[in-house]
Structure formats: structure tokens, C-alpha cells
Amino acid sequence: MRMAIQGVGITGAFGTGVDALRTALQTGQVPAENKTAENGYQAPVDKLVDFIPKRALRRIDHFSKMTLLSASLAIQDAKLETADRSRMGVVIATGYGTLQTTFKFLDSYLDYGYACSSPTHFSNSVHNAAAAHVSMQMQATAPSLTVTQFEMSVASALLSAQQWLAEGRVDQVLFGAVDESCEVLHYCRNQFFGAGEQGPIQPFAFDKQSAVAGEGATFLLLTADSEAAPYGFIDSVQMGNHTVSPLQLSNDELFIIGADGHRQCSSWYPQAVSDSNAVAYAPLYGSFLAAAGFDLAVAAVSQRDETIYLCPESSGSVGLLPTQKLTSQPLSCLKFDGGGNYGLIRLSR
Amino acid sequence: MFYPEPTAITGLGCISAAGLDLDTALVNMFAGKRNPQPPTKFTTEHQVASLVLELSDELKLPLDEEEEIYSRTCQLALVAAQQALTDAGWDSESLRGKRVGVCLGTTVGCALNCDDFYRTYKDEGDDVPDMGIMSRFLRSNPAAVVAQQLKLDGPVQTVVNACSSGTDAIGIGAGWLRAGACDIVIAGGTDELLRLTYSGFSSLMITAPEPCKPFDVNRKGLNLGEGAGVVILESAELSKAKQKRGYLRGYGSACDAYHLTAPHPEGTGLKRAIFEALAAAQLNATDIAFINAHGTGTPDNDRVESRVMKAVFPGKPFGSTKGFTGHTLGAAGGIEAVFTIACLQRGEIPASIGFSTADPECPAEPVKVNTAISGSNALSESLAFGGNNAVLIFAKGEC
After folding, report:
1. Is B259 a residue of the active site?
2. Under 8 Å CB-to-CB from B18, ≥6 apart: which residues?
3. What is the pLDDT of residue B66?
């Protein structure tokens, strides 16, 4: 069953909202203020106060703030601000969950002893805390689901969103992809990848480690197949392992690939797609596990704009596709992990 | 929404403090045996130790020599998955060429359990943090590890819905079969005992320094536990010639949208999940023979669950098995699904251990003794952090 994309909310290093994403797609640039001292990317959350009073945000961490901001934007974009949300499901895909709060919880007992473990940090460090905040703030009382499948989180979670809509369990799904960065993550990435973390990200230099940590949150407001679908449709979601059953893809398709400068994951793309019919946008939001959700948001915006945007300048592709009109060519998002597992999301207008 | 036909369950696997396999667990539960104790696998400086239910030291992990490669949570999932596959008549060879999905719930399994790494990282001394700890975390996604070890090709999902994860995973896995996404699903939950969660639950002051007493007026809180519970779900086509262990007839889930750590006082989300599952199964509440309650032994959970039990299932026998297993968090829904199916087949449920004196605030009482049940359908429910509620309805099988 295909899903209609009714709204998009997003915050990432390029800024907040669909317009900021579109500007980044057009210019290939990320505002300097959203780059960190460690050369990473960070997502702004300052616009959250436009939706939720500051007072209500006192104990809410950065991860949940990014989540709430993007979810609110998606609902606004779909014009459902005043709608009854008792049949709105919430599905969130995340690779690591809330890293900063997890480490704050560890700080509480490593610094002050186990008797001083922080209950606030503990309860907010649980992976589904962000989904709970969304449900509470939006009064979305239908099913709520959080999925952690590293690079495959988005495809896996989207399968469940599709199932809920197909079986009529919900009328809408607020589908999100969220991950955050933190100092410890930067340390680990530097230990694992060394100077590769200096960037710039070159997604099409498949044999080069050029990833740079990013973060952000994006939400799509999905409904069952509908005549109205401002951002088009998600036709199918497929998961599998390329080594067990090799993926057979048509040269007629256009792919937004999740290549983000991670050599181990990127090595699978040239086996499945030609870079003459692929684009990648990781340089606009950085490398993080839930970034496949950002690829999906870009696909949605591309469908709305009927335009495939030029890959950002540092993409490292030999034959970059120029910005061009999206015609009848099918558009898909493809993400590989390091073990050859893939998530393939096919869209249509 | 209703399910056109029940989903066949062809295999059961279960590992918990009640026993390292299902048969042993049933013997121990019906004999009223349990062994809560202070944790032995890690130390903390809590003045009063909360009791836990650990797996027996007789446990042999399948990848012993690779313990440093995968987390214990993943290894527990593999043990339960292998038990369930064997029970269903499958092995890794016969699965080849089949579309097999893996859907597992966990809480601890995806948490960054890296105390030792982080302590060194924070320390300004010369010691270098052990990156092997982080590498192991990055290899240890439970559903992915099971799929990888068994060389499977199909959808893979690790559900992190806190304490309802295992229940949700089974409901979601059955949905994959209905959608034709695969032919077989390995579904359930898995979690290990960790200092991190032990400290977290202690900080919330909901753990008990004595054996837990779900629904009892003198209950002091929960005992944490560890383990894994897995069921094998098969398409109608594949399971046609097999005797079934049971059937999944309905699944429902809903969010309270009320509080991060406390259930809605009237159990609004739980009721909605129950009625959704009943509708999917095309059953009435009167068709349910017994209920496997979440029954953690915390004041809030038991009060709300008991109220819902009284309102929706007046007079129906119910009990909590967490006194035998401890609260195994993301594994609980998987383990309790296996117990529910096995008890349906046996026609009997064990005494809700720890319960002796009714709480005036809990209007429904669990069974005090092993209790014969009649009927073909039973319900297992889970409540979770974040206000999640998930419910499964099972029907009796042929073996």
C-alpha cells in the first residue's frame, strides 16, 4: 500500500524547515553557524518556542527538542494543527537514541556515586522518551513506536508505519528520523576514522573515508493513499541483504543514495547503482545513522518541486547530475550498512 | 480492523531466571520456586541492594568464545531463537531461500552500556578508553545479530518501546506476515541485567529490596531480571501441515500521552490497546480464559492494571509471572507471550507468586494458587515507560 506524504518538518545543519532545506539544496551550502568546533554539524532548535511554551521545555533534552520541533513543523505543514490526533500514530527511527542524556545519566553516578543516579536523566535516556514527548505534546494517543536498527532504522520503521496505515490502525502517522551528536561521539569517530573526520564529505568517493558527524530530526506526516499528496507518495519499502539476495535495480530509476563518506557502507553502492543515476546530499546534513530520513525528506521536496537538485559541490562524483527537472523517472532512496544490508524506499508523484 | 485469519505459532523459545528453557520454567513456576538475590554480576554502592533474578550460571552462551564480540543481550536472543527454531522444526540450512524476518524488542540491548569506557574517557589520566567496548556496542543490535548469525534475508527490526518492546515486536512481526513481507518471523524480546538499568530503576525508587509482590498491599516495587522469549510465526502456506503451538489472534497498542514514567490513572491507553486486540481477534472480553498481567509490583502499575482488569475482565483469572522471572524489560513481552501460549495448552496458570494480601486500591486480585483454566484464548499485556501499552491475544494450539 502506498503512503501519501502530506507534510514535512525538518531541522538540520542547513537550518529549520522545508524552506531552509530547499535553500541548501539550491546553494549546496550549510550556514557556518551550524558547524561545530569539532568540524561537525549541529541542528538548531530555537524555533521550538514558536510551538511549545518555554516552561514546558524545562526538562526536555536536545534530542527531544529536535524531535518536537520537526514533528510540530510537519503537523503545521500538513495543516493539522487543530485536528483531532487520537488516531495519529507516532513512529521514530533512531540509530543511537539520546546520546547526550545517556552520558549525563552516567555522569550522575560516576561523579557522585550510585545513590545519586539521576532519575530525570535516566527516564529521558530511554530510547522511546522522545516519542513519548511527542505523544504527550501532540496528544497523539494512537500507537507509538521507536525503532533502532542503526543504518537500517528508517527503512525498518517505515515498514511499520506502512503496516499501520494499510490495516487502518491509524489515520495518520507522524514518522520521524532523529539522531544527535555529542562530544563522546566525536571522540569515538576520531578514534575509529582519524583524520577522515576533517571532511569535507565526499559521498561519491566510495573508497575514501570522508564522513563528518551530523545530527538532526525530520518528520513526514503520512496518510494512506490519497488524492491529495503535496509531496507525492511512498510506494514501497524493501529490506534485505545484498550478499544473500543481490539487489537488482533498473538503470531507469533515479536514486538518492545514503552514501555519507563512510567507506565500509559506501563500498556497496557501486555494486548496486551507477553514479550516473544517483545523487547524494550528506554534505548538507552530515553523517548520522538516521540520515536516511533526511534523504527521504529531500526526495519528498524534490517531488514537490519537480526538481532533482545538483549534489553539493564536495560530493566527489565524477559525473555530477546537474539540477534538472524530475520527469516521469521513478525516484528511490537507497541506504546500505557496512554488512550489505539495504533499505530501498520507492517513491512516486 | 480484524485479522482475516490467526497467525500460526510453530515454535517457542524461552530463557529466564525461572529456567533456561520453557519446560524447566514451567516446572519451577508451578512448583512456586524462585530465587531473587542481590546482583552478583556487577557491584554498586547502593546502601540497600534491590533484589534481582539472574540467569543460572549453568547457562552456556552460544558464542562463548565471541563474548567480547556481541553483547549478552544479543547472545540471549540467539539462545531463545535457536530454541524456538528447533521447536518449530527449522535449522539454519532449512531456512535458506526462505524470506525470514526478525523482529525483537529490547531496552538495554540498544542502550550505550559503556561505563568502563566512559569512566576512562572522563578521567584525565594517561589511560586510553577501550574502544573495543564501543565496537562491541556497534555490532550488537539484537535483531541484526540474529539475522546475521542465521544468514537470513528479510525485514529486520529492533523495537525499543521500553517494557512493551517484546509484546510490540510480536504484534509487528505478525503484521509482516499479513503484508506478505516474509514467510517466517522470529519475534520476541531480549534483555540482560546491567548496572546502568539497575542504577536507573533504583534512582526512580521503584525497585524492591525483597522478593517482589505484584498486586499485594505490601508490595515494595519490582525486581529486575534478564532473559529472552521468542516465538516463530509462520505464514498459513508454510505452516499448513504442521501442528501449531498456538495462534496469534490479535494485537493492539496505544499511548497514554499522559506522563513519561507513570501510566494514566484510568488506564485509558491500556483499555484502548485491549479493545483493539479484541476487535482484531473478533472476540469479546468474555472469550478470554485468563490474562497474563504486566504486574511489576510497583504501586502505580498494579493499581492501574487492576482497575482495568476489574472494568474489562471482571472475575477472569489473572496473574503476574514477574515474581519468577523478574522484570526483564524489553524481553518481558516475549517471555510472557511464551508462558501464555504454554499455559493455554496446559489448561492451568501458576499462582501469582508474592501475592497474599489484597490492596484496597487494587479492585481485582490475581490468583493465589495454581489455577485450572478453561477456554481457548488468553491475553498478555505490557505497560511501558512513555505511556506505551501493548496487548496480544493468543489461541490454543494443537501441541
Report:
1. no
2. B24, B25, B28, B29, B34, B53, B321, B324, B325
3. 60
Enter the C-alpha cell of residue B101.
524476518
Residues of chain B neighbouring A166 (CB-CB closer than 8 A): 179
| pTM, full prediction | 0.97
Indicate if B264 belongs to the active site: no
What is the residue whose three cell numbers read 534483555? B191
Give the three-state DSSP class for A48.
helix
Nearest chain B residue to A85 by CA: give it.
Answer: B257
Annotated active-site residue in B212, B327, B343, B362: B327
Average pLDDT, stretch A160-182? Answer: 96
Residue A268 to residue A290: CA distance in whole angstroms: 18
Hey, what domains does chain A have and what are their CATH numbers?
3-348 (3.40.47.10)
Out of 3.20.20.450, 3.40.50.450, 3.40.47.10, 3.30.70.20, which CATH number does the structure's domain B7-396 have? 3.40.47.10
Query: pLDDT below 50 — which residues of chain B?
Result: none
Q: How far is A241 from chain B (nearest CA, A)?
A: 6
Q: Give me the helices (H) in chain A, please.
A: 18-27, 62-77, 99-112, 119-125, 129-138, 153-166, 183-193, 263-266, 269-272, 282-285, 292-305
Phi-psi region of A306 (alpha: psi -120 to 50; beta: other; left: phi over 0): left
* Digit-coded pLDDT (tens) for A9-41: 999 999 999 999 999 999 998 988 888 766 689
DSSP A91-148: EEE-SS--HHHHHHHHHHHHHH-GGG--HHHHHHHSTTHHHHHHHHHHT--S-EEEE-
ipTM over 0.95: yes
**C-beta separation of B194 from B202 below 8 A:** no
Please report, for residues A158, B38, B200, B202, B332, the alpha-carbon distance to residue B207 in angstroms, rounded to integers and kept in the order given: 36, 12, 10, 6, 16
> Domain segments of chain B: what residues?
7-396
The alpha carbon dihedral of A28, A34, A35, A40 has a sign of negative
Contact across the interface for B253 and A133, Cβ inside 8 Å:
no
